[in-house]
Design brief:
- The protein has a single domain, classed as Pnp Oxidase, Chain A (Roll).
- Helices cover 22% and strands 33% of the residues.
- The mean pLDDT is 87.
- By secondary structure, it is of the alpha+beta class.
- It has 4 helices and 8 strands, in the order ααβββαββαβββ.
- It has a 6-stranded antiparallel barrel with strand order 1-2-3-6-5-4.
Length: 184
């Protein structure tokens, strides 16, 4: 509205120095609640929780990139076997091309309030070239078996660094693994 007040123009009352709209007290009270976190878990408990998530979750987000194309973020099913994450996907998937070009990637598990971030080195393995037990563990946990299919490959993710936290009060001690070695 030219020369008039639009619906989003803040009201400044005479004698006040406020430059914006008043915030309702309820909103301010609800913002205070955001900082009421449960107590931070000790490192050993965080490791147990992360291992439980690795054993029980079925899907993870995999982030990869190469120097020639855009970064990728894809969900893939996984199994945790012999201290590695094992996933399978089509051999022509852009994620496979990225991981062949540069094996470095990040894997993320869990919701935003219970995060497990894993910096990994990935290796692409033919569907018939798995080490003992990995294919069986994959098929048993996920209920399907891509072994022996020419158009499929397995991805083996070896964790190099692992970050685990729930809320801001756990950020200080979030690094549970560094250089592939558990710190806890």
């Amino acid at each position: 509205m030219p020369g008039g007040r639009g619906p989003f123009t803040p009201v400044v009352r005479p004698g006040t120095y406020r430059s914006g709209p008043r915030r309702p007290r309820r909103l301010i009270a609800s913002l205070r609640c955001v900082t009421d976190y449960p107590p931070a878990r000790e490192a050993g408990q965080r490791k147990r929780d992360a291992l439980r998530r690795l054993e029980t979750d079925e899907d993870a987000w995999v982030s990869s990139a190469s120097g020639e194309g855009p970064p990728r973020l894809v969900p893939l099913s996984f199994v945790w076997h012999d201290e590695q994450l094992w996933m399978a996907t089509k051999a022509k998937n852009p994620t496979v091309r990225n991981l062949r070009a540069q094996g470095a990637c990040w894997v993320a598990l869990g919701p935003t309030r219970d995060v497990v971030l894993i910096e990994s080195t990935a290796e692409v393995i033919a569907s018939d070239g798995l080490p003992d037990g990995a294919g069986e563990a994959f098929a048993e946990k996920l209920g399907w078996d891509p072994r022996g299919r020419d158009t499929w490959v397995f991805l083996a993710f070896r964790p190099r660094r692992m970050l685990v936290w729930r809320e801001v009060n756990e950020l200080a001690g979030r690094e549970l693994m560094r250089d592939g070695v558990w710190r806890v």
